[in-house]
Specification:
By secondary structure, this protein is of the alpha/beta class. Helix content is about 40%, strand content about 25%. It contains three helices and seven strands; from the N terminus they run βααββββαββ. The longest helix is centred in the N-terminal third of the chain and has 31 residues.
Amino acid sequence: MPEQVYLTPEGKAELERELEELLNVRRPELALKLKEAVSQGDLKENADYHDAKEQQAFMEGRILYLENVLRSAVLISNDGTSDEVRIGSEVTIVEDGGDEDETYKIVGPAEANPRERKISHESPIGGALLGHRKGDKVRVATPSGELIFKIKRIK
């Protein structure tokens, strides 16, 4: 049985869009590119052919991954404010002794993207925040050492 993957509705829609793009746009483009490369003759030393085959392998792997994620996805929704941090929560924290707030959305690993302030519930910070409440101080073991954060807001 595949492992369950947690997705927000937005994350699911984003992965579905990517899958659709791969299946209906990228796959046909790559098939055409491969056909053209094969028509050039000798495949042993045909860089276009080898490049297209490599791209195809990567793309097919991504398609399988997306299909598996979407098939086993458990939708999570943030249906309003919660007293404690859970998957789907938007959490504002401040590092102990710091004065700069950081806000993160806790999501499943398939849609985690630190640049967009979306962190996985399996990450050190995301996992440490789960189950805690506003005002709690949370210790987080990170590769650069232990950090302490105070939860300022949960949405």
